[in-house]
């Protein structure tokens, strides 16, 4: 039987960029010891107070259907986290940030219309545009510019059918935190050309240098920005699948209607736990921030500098991007060799677009006694691969 063209082209060629992760997971499930530095899942669970709130809600019988748009308590708690004025009615609760991203695309794109995706990008971005019937336009952010977006390059890439720009700050995988001038330039371009801005801000709680800027905080950005957020990174609640979209009331109302045909809302006990986390879990969120800040500092010190690699110090997020082009390998080849030789799993930069090719992304999601030796092994392998090329160069 024939499948739809849309679903067959969500992942072109059948490669979704996660092959190394799937291979590493299969090895671990077979009993091999693998250091997993591939995906952004925390090594400890959520705070005990959050789990207790969920347990209380279950015991109280909050196990039935909930309002599809989210409970009033959770919508109000999410709205209260925003620095700019936000009403609970401007919040649509979604099944994680990924569902929020899909809902935002469905809200702004008609079939065949295009959306700018800034490269490097999270591995699902282009897929999500295609899943919504849209066409991704990939615009690179240059490593030489610190992976900051260039409004001029975006302007040059726009088509008559372009309806939106998808941005992510702090950025996954680069760790770039878009500066105020770049955000203002994006808002000005969106206002001029009648574009939506879809702003993925799931790492906003993890900023190490500079400060987080949301386009929605600018007067011209507020009516044309859809903010995607999540509990996963800030509160260690990845498996709770609690996310949201914040935006103009008219757009949020339509996104809530989409929820009727997809997830039909989140379980009440999960929403109660999420509301508790937002209202009473600042200490838990601060502990997570501190943990990744400390790991970032320790990781940079452990890697140092050496032949075969260059560290891209992240201004935000929970990852390191390592430039390994001096080894002569692609990110895919380096990651595959690292997994085979050292049983260490990282994500190839090519999973995140052409701008990150020749890089690997390292998730800081294991404790330092595991993380730091693994980083030293990565550095040693990169140096060993670079040495023959360096020797040949000096001999010439």
Automatic annotation (TrEMBL):
Keywords: Aminotransferase, Pyridoxal phosphate, Transferase. It holds the Pfam family Aminotran_1_2. Its EC number is 2.6.1.1. InterPro entries: Aminotransferase_I/II_large, AspAT/PAT-like, PyrdxlP-dep_Trfase, PyrdxlP-dep_Trfase_major. GO terms for molecular function: transaminase activity. Residues 34-366 form the Aminotransferase class I/classII large domain. It catalyses: L-aspartate + 2-oxoglutarate = oxaloacetate + L-glutamate. The keyword Signal does not apply. It comes from the Bacteria. Belongs to the class-I pyridoxal-phosphate-dependent aminotransferase family. This is aspartate transaminase.
């Amino acid at each position: 039987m024939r499948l739809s063209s849309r679903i067959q082209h969500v992942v072109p060629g059948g490669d979704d960029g996660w092959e190394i992760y799937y291979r590493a997971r299969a090895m671990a499930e077979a009993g091999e010891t693998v250091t997993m530095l591939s995906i952004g899942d925390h090594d400890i669970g959520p705070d005990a107070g959050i789990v207790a709130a969920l347990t209380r809600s279950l015991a109280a019988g909050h196990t039935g259907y909930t309002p599809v748009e989210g409970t009033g308590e959770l919508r109000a708690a999410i709205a209260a986290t925003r620095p700019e004025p936000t009403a609970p009615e401007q919040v649509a609760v979604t099944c994680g940030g990924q569902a929020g991203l899909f809902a935002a695309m469905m809200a702004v794109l008609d079939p065949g219309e295009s959306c700018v995706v800034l490269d490097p990008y999270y591995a699902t971005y282009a897929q999500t545009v295609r899943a919504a019937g849209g066409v991704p336009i990939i615009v690179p952010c240059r490593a030489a510019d610190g992976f900051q977006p260039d409004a001029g390059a975006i302007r040059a890439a726009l088509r008559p059918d372009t309806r939106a720009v998808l941005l992510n700050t702090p950025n996954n995988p680069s760790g770039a935190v878009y500066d105020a001038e770049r955000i203002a330039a994006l808002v000005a371009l969106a206002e001029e050309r009648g574009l939506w801005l879809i702003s993925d801000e799931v790492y906003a709680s993890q900023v190490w240098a500079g400060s987080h800027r949301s386009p929605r905080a600018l007067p011209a950005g507020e009516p044309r920005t859809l903010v995607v957020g999540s509990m996963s990174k800030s509160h260690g609640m990845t498996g709770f699948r609690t996310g949201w979209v914040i935006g103009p009331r008219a757009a949020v109302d339509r996104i809530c209607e989409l929820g009727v045909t997809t997830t039909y809302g989140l379980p009440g006990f999960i929403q109660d736990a999420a509301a508790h986390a937002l209202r009473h879990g600042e200490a838990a969120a601060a502990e997570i921030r501190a943990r990744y800040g400390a790991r970032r500092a320790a990781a940079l010190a452990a890697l140092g500098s050496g032949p075969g690699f260059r560290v891209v110090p992240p201004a935000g997020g929970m990852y390191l991007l390592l430039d390994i082009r001096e080894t002569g390998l692609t990110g895919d080849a380096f990651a595959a060799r690292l997994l085979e030789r050292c049983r260490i799993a990282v994500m190839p930069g090519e999973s995140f677009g052409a701008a990150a090719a020749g890089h690997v992304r390292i998730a800081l999601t294991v404790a330092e006694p595991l993380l730091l030796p693994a980083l030293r092994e990565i550095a040693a392998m990169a140096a060993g691969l670079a040495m023959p090329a360096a020797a040949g160069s000096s001999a010439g």
